[in-house]
From TrEMBL:
<feature type="compositionally biased region" description="Low complexity">
    <location>
        <begin position="358"/>
        <end position="370"/>
    </location>
</feature>
<dbReference type="InterPro" id="IPR050509">
    <property type="entry name" value="CoA-transferase_III"/>
</dbReference>
<keyword id="KW-0808">Transferase</keyword>
<feature type="region of interest" description="Disordered">
    <location>
        <begin position="357"/>
        <end position="387"/>
    </location>
</feature>
<dbReference type="InterPro" id="IPR003673">
    <property type="entry name" value="CoA-Trfase_fam_III"/>
</dbReference>
<dbReference type="InterPro" id="IPR023606">
    <property type="entry name" value="CoA-Trfase_III_dom_1_sf"/>
</dbReference>
<protein>
    <submittedName>
        <fullName>CoA-transferase family III</fullName>
    </submittedName>
</protein>
<dbReference type="GO" id="GO:0016740">
    <property type="term" value="F:transferase activity"/>
</dbReference>
<dbReference type="Pfam" id="PF02515">
    <property type="entry name" value="CoA_transf_3"/>
</dbReference>
Amino acid sequence: MARCSEEVRVADWLASGVVPLTGRADGPPLVPPGHAATTARELAGRIAEATGGRVRVDGPALLGERAAFTGHTRNGRSSPGGAARLLPTADGWAAASCARPDDPLLYGALIEREIDGDPWSAIAGWLAEHTGEELAERAELLGLPAAPIRPTPPAALLTELSTALPTWPPRDVRGLRVVDFSALWAGPLCAQLLGLAGAEIVKVETADRPDGARRGHPGFYRLLHGGHRAVAVDPSTADGRSALAALVRSADIVIEASRPRALRGFGIDAEAEVARGATWISITAAGRTSNRVGFGDDVAAAAGLVATDDDGGPLFVGDAIADPLTGLTAAACALTSPSTGVLWDVPMAGVIAATLDGTPSRPAPAGAAPPRHRPLGPPAPDHGADPLIALGIGHPC
């Protein structure tokens, strides 16, 4: 995406709803560094163009949309939602999330002692005595959403998108089937935008582990999933894996947001599906060749999207901002795909890094828009609401 002027950069941030979410709780709001809000506006424009104007969204406003439901606001070195922290290491700073039920146990393995109660004091103590490189190595091994804040290579696909539309005609997704294995925010936003463009969205969850976002704000979940179909499968059984494979083969577009080995373990081969002509959207923390895991807050901060004020040290920018920016990017990819199969590798860290251009954060002028959300659509489906047989899949597991 093209670098923008300072005036445009600041105007897009002020319109995004992210500025009130950036800074210390007891301090003024800050304009973040970089041009993520401008990139979001440009991506929304590409989506509108690719859909002949059928899908028009306010790209910058999507970056702060969840906070419009939750009411969360800026909180300095704690993320607005409270699940992530920015903490000093022996040689710098790190971003870490502790949001999943198993995370305290995994952090206990990191620090090599059991964590009882609030984990953050113990995590902070370990980080203060270890380098960012030690954290990166051990977090990847343990599957922890934690990483040092350090320069990240930009994702080339944003530049690729800038040149794809002239060479690939926009793809009409009306009537196409999108099988969505993703959860939380980035992948579901991509699926929602494709659904608005006319695709059939089939959300896939395992029988015993629904999308964790179902436990979040019901209005936000409804916004992302309203009108979609939902199936639950049990890939631990032979019948479940067979049904899963048949469902994937029925898809024109597949969205996944896990490390590649997860679906491979269920017998699903992304490359084989691409070879038959499917579009595969692979959303990961740091790319398909990385074993790193991460969520929107820690990934964005670790990639360098942090604000600073006169007191120094990093502060969180927005609410899990890597998620909506990646969701917009993934949707633009799906809508500019060639008719032959293609695998889009969409690393959240690289998407964020591509928006950083050396411009610093700065105090916000008056006029920053608050977080806001789009009108709610149809209700979201219950977990496993649709039997597979209703989707034309032979085995109704």
